[in-house]
Amino acid sequence: MIRVLLPAHLRTLAQIKGEVQLDVIGAVTQRSVLDALEERYPMLCGTIRDHDTQQRRPFLRFFACEEDLSHESPDAPLPEAVVTAAEPLIVLGAVAGG
Fold it and tell me: What are the DSSP calls for the chain, one per residue?
């Protein structure tokens, strides 16, 4: 089981309260977790990753174990604490302004 924390606007869109718990088969990577998330909550397709390129949306960041994983390869293994559900994968909405 993998734990995922989403920003409030995505939880509202998917009608989720609290964190999401997902079963991920195979290697636990950003890609496999997001694939499982979008399969379970199809309304999130295109909100975290671009439909065509599958690249992370500009104003979203990925964190785990107090590390910014946003620029890591989507196929890089996630930290062991995420794999064992000791820590969640956090999808965080960036704040921008001027």
Answer: -EEEE--HHHHHHHT--S-EEE---SS-BHHHHHHHHHHH-GGGTTTSB-TTT-PBPTTEEEEETTEE-TTS-TTSBPPHHHHTTSS-EEEEE-----
- CB count within 10 Å of CB 56 equals 19
pLDDT, tens digit, 9 for 90 and up, residues 33-88: 999 999 999 999 999 999 899 999 988 999 999 999 999 999 999 999 999 999 99
Q: Which domains, from first to last, does the chain contain?
A: 2-93 (3.10.20.30)
Q: Is the pTM of this model over 0.85?
A: yes
Q: How many residues does the chain have?
A: 98
CA gap 11, 16 in Å, rounded: 5
